[in-house]
Structures are given as structure tokens and as C-alpha cells.
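Notes from the 1:1 (GR / supervisor)

We went over the backlog. Supervisor wanted to see one worked example end to end before approving the batch request, so GR pasted a single chain during the call. The sequence is below; no edits were made to it. Supervisor asked that the structure be written out right there so they could see what the output format looks like.
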Amino acid sequence: MVKSIDLFAGIGGIRLGFDQAFSKEIKTVFISEWDEQAQKTYKANFKDDFSIAGDITKIKEDEIPGFDICLAGFPCQAFSLAGQRKGFDDNYKGLCRGTLFMDVVRICEFHKPKVIFCENVKGLFIHDRGRTFKIIYNAFVELGYKVFYKILNSRHFGVPQNRERVYIVAFRNDIAPENFDFPDATDDTKRLWDVREEKPVPAKYYLSDVYLETLRKHKARHELKGNGFGYEIRDWSDVAGAIVCGGMGRERNLVVDKRQKNLIPTTHIKGTINKEGVRKMTPREWARLQGFPDSFELPLADVHLYKQLGNSVTVPVINEIAKKIKEVLDNVNKGK
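Structure output shown during the call:
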């Protein structure tokens, strides 16, 4: 039985990928997630006999049970290409998000797990001309780990989302393989119609004619300045752009769906619902874009779910990497 901890757990996407890969051979022994709404979605989907810990900066290393694998999707905002990219100097609500990585180091230095797994935005790779990533890489090396990393795109792993992320796998030196092969693409055929809701979606997901016109004018202004910002209507035969941190980007993944005939507004909007069938994708569709199974419960209001799913990971990518990690650990156990 392999024991794991889930740091910066979000709604449990990384854990779910590892649970799928290791099946009954893995047990989560500690979870940390400071966002209370994310905790609610996590608890709805994972039944543990212990509480989710909050702010990791306030938890001492010896308060965490021993573990073999550290799962750490430390916050992406500090390194995102879409953000201000302050990196290790980023400060938010009293938490220095760039340095939350240092809590991963602190905990792993104390426990010396066999494997450290991290996921982050592609911007981590180039932030501060590569110096930020070098600090992270060297920190693991100094702890006694051999570090492997690669950028993978979700669209190559069975979901129709163009989402590039950097994945870091660090093996403790005494068990580290000579090489670690990240997974090859498994399925790049999926398109948006593969994640579409089976039934017509409620009117609340359709844009008002006033808002749609506002988006068009906003895009036109940016195009005049030579910028590429603005809304995007995706064809069902295409793939989505990355759904992003904070739940933003809904307007970058609009679709046309004329199945709903009852377009009487159920929320307060300006104007009327547009006659072109333009709507946002639903939280369930976003969950499918991230590879969450339909059995994964989405118990909260949409505003929370968009944020949580945009902040989450693509489960099938995690699953494939976890399978490769399991192969290494199995070989170690066999004495190879």
C-alpha cells in the first residue's frame, strides 16, 4: 500500500488521477486545501476518515503522517502567463503564493517520500527567464531527488481542451530510474460534441443580446489595437481553449446550441436572450473538459464550480503519468 498526501488539493483532480492508476494500492493519509468551497466539493467526492487541513503554512511537518508520494498542485497564479507573473514575490491575501512551493520543500525534506509530483502552468517554465523553474528544480535536487519534467497538452489525452501544463516528477535518489518516460499521447480525436450536455441546457446559460453585443464591441476595439483579446465562439467540431484559473475564460469558450426552445430568462439580465443560440458551456461540460467522470459530484453553485474546474487539472493526463510512476515503484519493489 502506497501512502500519499494531497497538498493544495483543490477539488481532488490530482488525487483522482492517482487513485485511478493505483486502484486499491494507494491510500491518501493527509489533505490540505485552504479554500472552504473547494473543500465542500472535495468532501462530496472523497470519503476520508479525517478532516481536510487548511492553510499549509500553519501546519508543522511532524503533524503530517508519513507518506510515500507527495501530490502538490501548488497555486498557478504566481506563474501564469495570464497573470502579473510576480513569481516568488507574489502576495495575495497574506499568502505569498510563489513561496507556497517552499512548504512542499519543507514537508518533503522532513518526510523524504519516494516521489514528489507537481503540476503547474506552462508559464512556470519561462517565468523570470527560467530562473523560477531553476530554483524549483534545484530545490528538489538538493533534497536528494532526481527530477524529470515535461510539458503535456490535455488535448492529446482524450479531452477536447487545448491546455498545456508542466508536470514535474521527482524520485528519491536511492530509487530513481535512469530515465523516466512521460506518457505518449493516448487520444487526440475528441471534440467539443463529445462533452456536450445530452439534453437542452437551461436558459440561464444563454447570453443576453445586450451582453453579446458588448462582447462584440469589446473584441472589435481590441482588434483595432492589434490585440487578440475577446470572446470566442467554438465550433462543436473544434476543441476548447484552456479553461483557466479563477473561472475566467467562459467567454473564450462560447458555443452555439439551438436545442433549447424556452428562452424566457430565469435570471435578471439586460435585454433578452440572444436569438443566435450562443451560450456558455455548463459546469458539467467543463468537468468533462477536465476528464472528470460524470459520477463526480458538482454540489455547489455555478460561480464556485467554474472557478474550481478552471483551477483544477486534467484527470486523464494525471492518470497516465501516475501509471508510469507506478511502473517505477513496482520495479523497485521487485528489486530491479
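Supervisor's comment: The two ends are 19 Å apart (CA to CA).
Batch request approved.
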